[in-house]
Amino acid sequence: MKLLPLALPLAALPFVAPRLAPAGNGPIRDELTAVYGRWEKARTSFDTATFEQMLAPDFFCQIGAQKMTRAEFLAQISVKQPGAELTRFDSDILTLRQDKDGAWVAVITEKLEFEGKGPDGKPNHVYSLWVTKDRFKKTGEAWQVLSSEAIGNENWSGGELPPFADWKSS
User: Fold this and answer.
1) Cα–Cα distances in Å, from 48 out to 53, 108, 137, 158?
2) Is there a domain that residue 161 lies in?
3) Mean pLDDT of the chain, nearest integer
4) Contact 96, 32 (CB under 8 A)
5) What pLDDT digit, counting tens, does each position of 92-132 carry?
6) Helix-strand-coil percent breakdown of the chain, rounded to 5?
7) CA 93, CA 157: separation in Å to the nearest integer?
8) CATH code assigned at 133
9) How far is residue 123's CA from residue 114's CA, in Å, rounded to a whole number?
10) CA–CA distance from 117 to each of 141, 159, 162 (Å)?
C-alpha cells in the first residue's frame, strides 16, 4: 500500500515530460546534425565567418562558473592554441527536445583531439570528451546557436587513450 502514493506522480510524467524529437530520422534531428557538421568543420579550420553566422547575437557559453559572452567565446575559439593543433571535433546528439519558448535543446557529446608537443618536446596527442547542452532557434531557413552549457568533460594525454570502444580517431 505504501507504493500507491508514488505510482500517482509517476503516472503523470508522460503529461509533463518535454517533447522529444524522434531518435531516428526526425527532420529537426537531421537539420541539427547538419548544423553540427558545419560547426565541426568551422572549428577545425578556425572559420571565423562561419562562427559569426551561426552564433545568435545574444549567444553565451557557460563552462562551470564562467559565463562567456558571444565576443569572449569568439575570441577564444578563433585563435589557434600555440603548440597544439585541433585535429578533430565531432559532435553526436544524445537527446533533443523543444523547450517552452520554442527553442530546441540538444544534449550532445563532443570528441576533440589535439596534436602537439609535450613539455619534453616529444609529440603528444590529447583527447577530450565534452558533454554540452546547446540551445537553437531557426530563423527563416537558418539555425542559430543561442547558448552552450558545458555539463562535463574529461581529458586523456601522455599516451592514455579514452576508455570507449566507439572512440576511433579520425
Assistant:
1) 9, 22, 20, 31
2) no
3) 86
4) yes
5) 999 999 999 999 999 999 999 999 987 788 888 999 999 99
6) 30, 45, 30
7) 25
8) 3.10.450.50
9) 11
10) 42, 12, 19
